[in-house]
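Entry 14. Ran structure prediction on the chain below.
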Amino acid sequence: MKTLRLIFLAAGIFFSAGTHAANPQVTMRTNLGDMVFELFPDKAPKTVANFLQYVNDGHYKGTLFHRTINKFMIQGGGFTPDYQYKPTHEPISNEADNGLRNERGTLAMARSYDPNSATAQFFINLDDNKYLNFHRPLPDYYGYCVFGKVVKGMDIVKKIGAAPTAAGGPFDADVPIQPVIIEEVALVTEISTDNSRIAESVEPVKPHKKTPKSKKEKTHG
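Output, structure tokens:
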């Protein structure tokens, strides 16, 4: 708990008394453009603290979006441009049962079949992926924890998702042919007070057989 408090305190110092934003925001700079995420520590405190720890550590700098599937999701945060796996902290417990849904533009944690196996890798939903939501506390139905959303740069997310893919490194498919590199992730020091939800809506997609997974993780579903 001490670690969580310190991380949230560190996030809080970036917000002045004049701002109306209650939640921390981070900016992610990539070689294709920038994105800003709002995080939800009230809904997923352990997950947000974990993500901010990796941000503070500089873990994401120079990592890839190594798996992108158009109209499904884009995944990153685990590999260097030469496909070296980056060491991580211990896995965290799954907070998918928090009322948040894997809707278009939301930020969630990738994991293996074990519900409590998420470390550093994350994904951004490109559509409403209902089958990734929590349903019941069993491995096949536990779901993927949503802990934030895109508040700026959804056009960049879509651009990354639409990039041509092929095999690459240890992966047999879904790797962007032109590397998409995360250049920096940092807490936002000056943020907009407009935290309105993404205006554009989409129809839910049919269940996709692929799920967000990280190194040596098996796909289920």
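The mean pLDDT is 84. Will compare against last week's run tomorrow.
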